[in-house]
Amino acid sequence: MTPLPQSRRLASGGLIDRSRTLSFQFDGKPMTGHPGDTLASALIANGTILAGRSFKYHRPRGILTAGSEEPNALVELRSGARREPNTKATTVELFDGLVARSQNRWPSLGFDVMSVNSLLSPIFVAGFYYKTFMWPAAFWEKLYEPLIRRAAGLGRASREPDPDSYEKAFAFCDVLVIGGGPTGLMAALSAARAGAHVILCDEDFSFGGRLLSEQFVIDGQSGADWKAAAVFELEQNPAVTLMRRTTVFGGYDQSTYGALERVGDHLPVPLPHMPRQRLWKIVAKRAVLAAGAVERQIVFGGNDRPGVMMASALRSYVNRFAAAPAQRLGLFTNNDDGWKTVADCIRAGIKVEAVIDPRPAIPEAFRQLAIQAGARLFEGGLVQDAHGTARGLQSIDVMTSTGRTESVAVDGLAVSGGWNPAVALTCHLGARPVWRDDISAFVAGDTPPGLVVAGAATGAFDLRSCLADGVRLGAEAAQAAGFTAVAPTVPAASEETLGLMPLWKVTGARTKAFVDFQNDVTAKDIVIAEREGFRSVEHLKRYTTLGMATDQGKTANVNGLAIMAALTGRSIPETGTTTFRPPYTPVAIGAFAGHHRGKHFRPTRLTPSHAWAAEQGAQFVEAGQWLRAQWFPKPGETDWLTSVNREVIAVRGAVGVCDVSTLGKIDIQGADAGTLLDRVYINGFSALPVGKVRYGAMLREDGIVMDDGTTARLAQDRYVMSTTTANAAKVMQHLEFCHQVLWPELDVQMVSVTEQWAQFSIAGPRARDTIQKLIDPMADVSNMALPYMGVTTITVCGGIPGRLFRISFSGELAYELAVPARYGDGVIRAIMSAGAEYGIVAYGTEALGVMRIEKGHPAGNELNGTATARDLGLGKLMSQKKDFIGRVMAERSGLTNPDRPSLAGFVPVNRADRLRAGAHFLGLGAHPSASNDQGYMTSVAFSPSLSHWVGLGLIKNGPNRHGERVRAYDPVRRGDIEVEICSPVFIDPEGGRLRV
Amino acid sequence: MQYSAFSLLKNALTGHRYWKPAWREAQPRDRYDVVIVGGGGHGLATAYYLAKNHGITNVAVVEKGYIGSGNVGRNTTIVRSNYLLPGNVPFYEWSMKLWEGLERDINYNAMVSQRGVLNLCHSDAQRDAFARRGNAMRLHGVDSELLEKEQVRKIAPYLNFDDARFPIQGGLLQPRGGTVRHDAVAWGYARAGDRRGVDIIQNCEVTGFRIDNGKILGVETSRGFIGASKVGMAVAGNASRVAGMAGMRLPIESHVLQAFVSEGIKPLIDTVITFGAGHFYISQSDKGGLVFGGDIDGYNSYAQRGNLPTVEDVCEGGMALMPMIGRVRMLRQWGGIMDMSMDGSPIIDRTPVDGLYLNAGWCYGGFKATPASGWCFAHLIARDEPHAVAAAYRLDRFATGHVIDEKGQGAQPNLH
Amino acid sequence: MSDPMPNPRFAFAGHLTAIGSLVAGAGITLMPKDDLALATVIARKGQAGVLGERVQALFGIPLPARPKRAAAGKIAFIGTGPGQWLAIEESSGDPQSFAAKLATEFAGSGSVCDQSDGRAVIRVSGPRARHVLAKGLPVDLHPRAFGPGDAALSQIALISTLLWQIDEAPTYEIAVFRSMAGSFADWLIASGAEYGIAAMS
Amino acid sequence: MQIECPFCGKRDAHEFAYLGDATVARPDPAVPDAARAFYEYVYLRDNPAGSHRELWYHSAGCHSWLVVTRDTRTHAIETIAQVGAR
Ligand SMILES: Cc1cc2nc3c(=O)[nH]c(=O)nc-3n(C[C@H](O)[C@H](O)[C@H](O)COP(=O)(O)OP(=O)(O)OC[C@H]3O[C@@H](n4cnc5c(N)ncnc54)[C@H](O)[C@@H]3O)c2cc1C
Ligand SMILES: NC(=O)c1ccc[n+]([C@@H]2O[C@H](COP(=O)([O-])OP(=O)(O)OC[C@H]3O[C@@H](n4cnc5c(N)ncnc54)[C@H](O)[C@@H]3O)[C@@H](O)[C@H]2O)c1
Ligand SMILES: Cc1cc2nc3c(=O)[nH]c(=O)nc-3n(C[C@H](O)[C@H](O)[C@H](O)COP(=O)(O)O)c2cc1C
Ligand SMILES: [Zn+2]
Q1: Per the CB < 8 Å rule, is C179 touching A595?
Q2: Are residues A774 and A730 in the same domain?
Q3: Which of A370, A544, A654, A712 has its CA 20 to 30 A from that of A902?
Q4: A428, A523: one domain
Q5: What distance in Å separates the CA atoms of residue A392 and residue A373, rounded to the nearest whole number?
Q6: Which range of residues forms the domain containing residue C65?
Q7: How far apart are the first and last CA of chain A?
Q8: Count of domains forming chain C
Q9: Does the reported pTM lie above 0.80?
Q10: Which residue minimizes the CA distance to atom 16 of ligand 3?
């Protein structure tokens, strides 16, 4: 198909680049446009009136606005994995190859079966679903809800991962100017001239705001020329950052602003390495909000018909985009500004059939203008109903000042109900806008610290005041940020008047009159809401969904609350607005995530031996942020248990090595290091001899175990503490709290050395033999010289300085060898070759877990944040002689009750049974019920040494029930077996092997 | 007027001219048998059950703003009873049962949607913890299923199974869990209470309590004194402020939790999915918006709004879990003030003041509790003794050590 | 004891390979700094003054009380917290002995801890360095706010970082925990790709 | 929210860990009603709507514990100081 000519493109004018033609498709139809077009302007240029269907009634809808306030013209942009639902055609910058599709219709936009909903509209009124669909109960999920869900929603999201990338960035400035219309440009110029570092953002792809869309003259130049000069000056200033296509979407605490830059959205696909969008977090000393104002609707019958358009939007299409939305236009305006449309239409050759102005007396100049345009003038008139089809408008019914109704044939109607200053960003921190009677609009009330509002956003609706505002507030902002402003000069511009007569809703409409277009909220819905008691604006909003659509009611809300005000006899300010919330316009979820998706969701921490382990084919597991080797499968081993059993057997029978560098390590120095440790651990450390290691447990202040680990005394005034992998940061924070907040008088210095050391556990009967081959030959690591729970410094592999701890998690003769992390890779290779003759294996976290369970050491699953030291069998460690964190609260009756679940071992009565962590304990024969619940299995392992499963668990009064049998009940995995309670230490209970 | 398809049709034919207000715009009277402070879900439900279960109809609910302006109107609508600890499971399951019959009971469609709640797990330890939880639920007769990765894939094929930082290993499913339309709960209870004679008084802020000799006499409000023999506080995020007026300090901090909704899209996500490792949970409302949230902002706040880092954090979780939502746009973000208790569990109890009762500490999970909370609080107020399923929610449990700490975080409210 | 001493494996080893073809027009240049000796120095209680004098006497460096880098010759001290510094020795042949030496010199006034392996340091320089770092660092690096000698402790892409500026090129050096070098490199490469990246060793 | 760390400068609150009320003080464990005193210290909070003294830890920065006085209604920060530096 070849594209049709751009039938509604004006022959000349506009800020489009006619030298290049761009091809695009809408609903499969090929069309063309030019650089500088939006999708909406290109559709208009191609004579397309119908752009979308509404949410509830599937009403045909045209293009209403020319900006981000658009409620109607929403499309699915792009296709496949890049499909973007609900994209406003009015904000899409046209690019070559653009593909868009209309939404919420079937089979086609022109003929939509669901438009029968419109016939059912007497039933589908506000809140109808709260009143029905209650019977029978089961039908909700099966029938009603799927139907409702299918009918709801507009576009379709892709089901494939988003192929584009996003990023985030920070920016800092003296003055942030939000909006680059005449006000914003002037504010930026004025701040920049004072020397301030300025960021100017505009959501449009071109600066200029209304200057692009109106026939303004500034300092004798056209608005567009003045703007070009202003932008040029700003571009030349290195202290100014100009950000086009950047919406400031939210104001947050302490002058932090969120902004979205659409970096690649105007391209078919982003260039290589180009993010699609960038989320800016801008910290500004001062901010000037110059976001302009949004023109609002008037509520009359059929006001949603395709062909009805905001007057300012119509001028945008005509002046900026050189596209004619209509050929025979009606204009319905309650203010002077709307009249600009007449002059612009005359210039563009669009016939103005009629001007309907409800004001009883209009200025003479306008009367002349109407005559010049050959338009019928209905002074004091009202448009009651607009009639048309999906293809366009046919006529309007005008109620004259004398009460007659006349029909006027038109194919378009421009409407201006006045202007709402864009105050949203002033309200994000909780302020409320205030009503101004003179302009019949809400303006900013209190503004957030550091933010000022300027131009049309303050209700200054004439160019002169806008420019003056910009000059003044830009300079003041710069001054407040510490600069000296230069004497301001305000460019000259002609005078403008507003002369608005408030008009919210036309009475006597015969057809549906819409307030919220996208959500199909009619004036009648508001009446029903009022009748049913939903009178607060917030109730009104929620009951009718007014203002809850993708446009957040930018063109609709004030009409809605004005109608409610009239119904309840309250004033508009008494009625109030609903709450403005970020984002100002919707922001892609991907942009908030930036780089942090997929594997980059969170940083990954790699152990010093990672590369080596990967070479060995290790299976890795996520342990918090760490990746750790879980087991090392050997060729032929297909299931994890075989590998793990082999690793355990090798350690218990010969020797194995495991990277335990992930354990937290904290270097603690100072004269009072021991005192601090005494206060954070339940047991004592100040009396620990130098060269010794001790196991310790620490509590939270509420008496529950926080963490455990070993701490070694390296010197009189120096210890090194180890923490569990999971709690490393938390313990560091806790120690800093204890030191800085509780006991600042102590002479203690602490720093995390977790990353400094590669630490390997070398365990098994041949551990010493292996170590011996690695270390400085002069070093003595005999049982005498370095007994169990000793520590010494040594050098290994011919000169690498290290620390050797004689500690054991596995229950075997074991050492932990710490070397500077850069040598981790080399040292594990050296350990493997040193141990080769003894049959050394590398073992992973699984085997480590098996052996600690066999030894009954509590770990993560037992340190569950609710267990006390006594529960875990550590009660004996709790010193009676000193205070320590958690001591007092640990004595609360609820924590000392002997019936509390406490640590015990478990074996299956039928030794072939498998144990499962998470199974609950019930008395034999007890009915499975919550009241019979005695505790649960915390950790299990298959013990290759014992050839059956063993488990640890917390069970009521556990330590006193060894030998008793209970049920391990596990209905979620269909398990229900008998287990015997036993000592939690399954291997070498006397600990002989540790000490050899 | 009873709501039904029939009454809707009948009114449609008469231009909807005859609907009555869902609840009367009641003016405060001098005294009531019971005054409930707080027109949120819990307060309104309490008033309804006082009338329905205990025949106490001389009741007022006083609300400082409009009813539903608090957390009941700003939550992510998830209901479930997949709790772990014995103090909690029976209570939340009772709530689940009440949800199941609610709409016919109160004659209001609150869109109780039992679409299933799926919690994902990413490690063996998490799976064991889910097994423990699932088993605890089963022990109390609550439905729970432990799913393997492939079963999760069947339910939600669009999740990131291939390229995840924390690969999905399985999940815990509660098929009866789901969502309920937040506002409808407030309005439905209000209407049902009103029909039984309860006065719902909006724009009436409680500013103090009148207490004599340790006994409650009534409440001071922005609209004058209202006498009452008994007063129940159900003010959620404002619990400390209101209890403070009676001279109490509570084991509670007020924190903001944010929630987010996307633009409306056609059905995409059919269950409730929670991604604990990524602090993200999501469901799709019947209107088509993806409703999602994550962690609390983490500092004391009464501002009812949050900050940007949490938005980023939540969306990072979303993109990590379901990278197809990248181009779906967030429409709105808002916050609610939550009564974060020191053990993450609620309090429904008497207070040191005779006739003054406390309902608080719901954290980010009290929406699902609404029916049972109302039921049990009404029971406590009417009979002056705790209801059996809420017996563990005592105020003195912190002093005695009988805390109910599902997450094991201890006395740090922002970590619950 | 037959095997020779194993070679060190540095933190960025294998993590910069993705730069591959991104070199064209390099806007930033990355260079891992594997030759630094690093040590944390924390003043003992009430001894900050004494420590400062020791440092001044030994190295001719005034200990910065703020996040700043003060350097003389091969030695630099960066303020990393109240009473805390990161001491750096450039092109150090024997990193462990640096800490050991400091410990001896500061005995009684400062606690010293070797961190030569705990932090991985990478140098980022080039005309686009500021643009790239702005994608992660919540600190204003504009010359007006941050210049040679300034340092910042912060976070980039959820990774704790210590950054300091060397010169006006600008050249920055960034220290991250060693285990996160890979993730940090991933972020750097993703953020720098649009400007082109060169790697030096 | 931006917190100006006295050492590091202005940073987003994201870099900090929050602990809560800074006005409670760890009781002397030797007092006769220590159980009560600790209960109040660990559990009871004023939780004011308005000015609130609270503890923040600059975990991604200099590891200082800070006392921040902040209005819980507006998030406006009144004062910030290193703990102990009163
Ligand atoms: C973002 C968010 C998401 C959540 N998601 C879930 C979820 O998915 N599932 C879940 O179960 N829970 C969730 N919750 C928690 C849940 O919403 C609350 O726990 C629950 O709603 C609290 O009970 P309520 O409805 O009675 O509270 P509210 O609705 O807050 O009611 C308290 C009322 O008291 C009023 N009040 C306060 N002070 C006074 C006074 N002095 N005088 C008169 N009136 C006063 C308030 O205005 C308010 O209306 C979420 C909460 C939030 C904020
Ligand atoms: N006579 C009237 O009734 C009337 C009414 C309104 C406007 N006007 C005219 O319009 C002009 C107003 O000038 P102005 O500069 O104040 O407003 P403007 O509308 O010209 O410019 C506002 C700019 O802000 C941008 N913007 C809005 N929100 C934004 C956000 N959140 N982030 C980034 N960019 C955003 C818009 O894209 C626009 O370019 C004057 O010329 C005035 O005469 C007249
Ligand atoms: C479940 C749920 C769904 C929501 N869906 C929408 C929505 O589709 N559109 C919308 O504008 N707001 C939606 N909101 C947000 C409300 O507009 C509002 O922000 C929220 O109730 C908090 O009130 P506030 O913002 O007035 O303080 C939704 C809120 C909830 C709780
Ligand atoms: Zn700091």
Answers
A1: no
A2: no
A3: A712
A4: no
A5: 23
A6: 36-114
A7: 88
A8: 2
A9: yes
A10: B74
